Amino acid sequence: MKTAHEVLEVNREELQAVLEQARKEPLDEAGYEKLQALLRAFSYVADLIGEKDTTISQLRALLMKPSTEKTNKVLEQAGLKPGSKSHLPDSGGKAKPGHGRNGAEAYRGAERIHIPHASLKPGDCCPECLKGKVYAKKLPALRIRVVGQAPLRATVYELESLRCNLCGEVFEAEAPEGVGENKYDESAAAMIGLLKYGSGVPFYRLAGLEKNLGIPLPVSTQWEIVEEVAELIRPALEELIRQAAQGEVFHNDDTGMKILSLARESAASRGSPEERSSSHERTGMFTSGIVSTRQGQRIALFFTGRRHAGENFAQVLAQRGAGLPPPIQMADGLSRNFPKLPDKLKVIVGNCNAHSRRRFVEVASNFPEECRYVLESLAEVYGYDAQAEERGLSAEERLRFHQEHSRPVMAKLHAWLRAQFAEKKVEPNSGLGSAITYCLKHWERLTLFLLQAGAPLDNNIVERALKKAVLHRKNSLFYKTENGAEVGDLFMSLIHTCELNGANPFDYLTELQKQAAEVAKDPSAWMPWNYRETPKQAAALRRG
């Protein structure tokens, strides 16, 4: 059955047929589902219309089939043939062979088993020509076998028990090492946390899956496990925040989130509807995402509560070391994304070109030719940025590359945008006029990549990070308490930081629990990018 968020695949003729059927006889199941889906969709759209921030473009995007924002697709939907790409720079990227299938090197978490030849070894005589000698090839032949398994596995140890028939003393077989101390292994807690906060699987769904597989795990038990683990590995998060504060480039944004306990407190502390409407108390709740980059390392942080992204960013920057140069902050143009900082803390602010571009995408169907020029100009700039990344240019080299190739493109675009108003070609209050106004208003920050080494073009990295919070909101709907939100933020921060740095989050969460005492002593040695080397270094010191 379709939900209100899905496109309603029912045309007017089908709905008319349903109405005619209802007039003559009771509806069948198919007709009932169509009518129910229509009513749900109508209710959802009516709620959206009641929200003051909802625009016609957003409603159109909701009711139409979803589409990509790629320039060619946007122009096709606007009724235009995409222009020739001969004037656009080649991104330098090459299609990967194998049609997207993964080779053996992609299975980093797989167990590797060496299988020697059954009858030959290096140096033996060739059984084919009987003259040469065989030798080991540099690369072995590879075969991959993928098997399924349950997220959690349990083992029941049946310890033989013997009782003396005279004194009654009981003698039990000795349990294997580690069994009986803790029912739930570190790997079980890591898997629960990874599924819940990394993949968005609600506790109740995991409980249902495990029950079907013969491993009962109540929702309350899952929560108790991750809550206990969160306190154990919190030093790692605190160190991540400290190291993130020393970053060179920051990306930040937020998305809506609900915490039931805060919502109830707000409702209880405020009186009549008239008092609520006149109150200036902040009622919104958000999950803020912050991605800090420094020398190739990326750290993702999540904060859920009443504070906006800018306020959470300011709290992170409060741990920044004295004497460091001002970092670059990349965000969209919303004022709540920018912190109020003391004089000793300064940031270099850039605005997101993807947000600016999206405003033209939304009105492309109404102003196709004008939007075409803007979109293709930005596509050319993004092509140059892709080239710079492909060549592995340093921050300074990338800046000079953009100044040479992208600056003329952006200068022409800026002149064109200004001419639309100066020559009265565009009504300022129209959709296109609003997009142009936004672009001109933030032009200096949108072109920071032409002025500052290391400045990114957009804020997409944190937009992708926030998808974890969006996935949690979609599947679990809310956090029950502020403590629950803190636990979720901790796991999301550690998991996504692992993903950004190519580390295995399941392995990392497991090791943090096993080495909790060492993590508490020196959390900087147990970051996603160095935790595997720390035990080896400690062992080498002991041998030395």
What coarse outline follows from CA principal-axis ratios?
A: globular
User: Share of helix among residues?
Assistant: 40-55%
- The average pLDDT value, as a whole number, equals 86
Element-level helix/strand string: HHHHEEHHHEHHEEHEEHHHHHHHHHHH
Q: Helical segment tally?
A: 21
Quote the beta fraction: 5-15%
Q: Tell me about the largest β-sheet.
A: 5 strands, mixed
Distance between the termini: 66 Å
Low-confidence stretches: 1-8
Main sheet strand line-up: 5-4-3-6-7
The overall strand count is 7
Radius of gyration: 29 Å
The structural class is alpha/beta
Question: What's this entry about, in short?
Answer:
The protein has 544 residues and is α/β, with parallel strands linked by helices. It has helices spanning 12-24, 29-50, 56-63, 71-77, 186-198, 203-212, 219-244, 260-269, 273-278, 309-317, 353-362, 368-391, 395-422, 431-441, 443-446, 460-465, 467-476, 482-500, 505-514, 516-521, 533-543, and strands at 161-163, 170-172, 249-256, 286-294, 297-305, 328-331, 348-351. Among the domains are: 1-54, no CATH class; 188-352 and 459-544, no CATH class.
Describe, in plain words, how this protein is organized in 3D:
- This protein is an alpha/beta fold.
- The chain has 21 helices and seven strands.
- A five-stranded mixed β-sheet has the order 5-4-3-6-7. A two-stranded antiparallel ribbon has the order 1-2.
- Strand 4 and strand 5 form a beta hairpin.
- The chain starts with 11 loop residues before the first helix and ends with a helix.
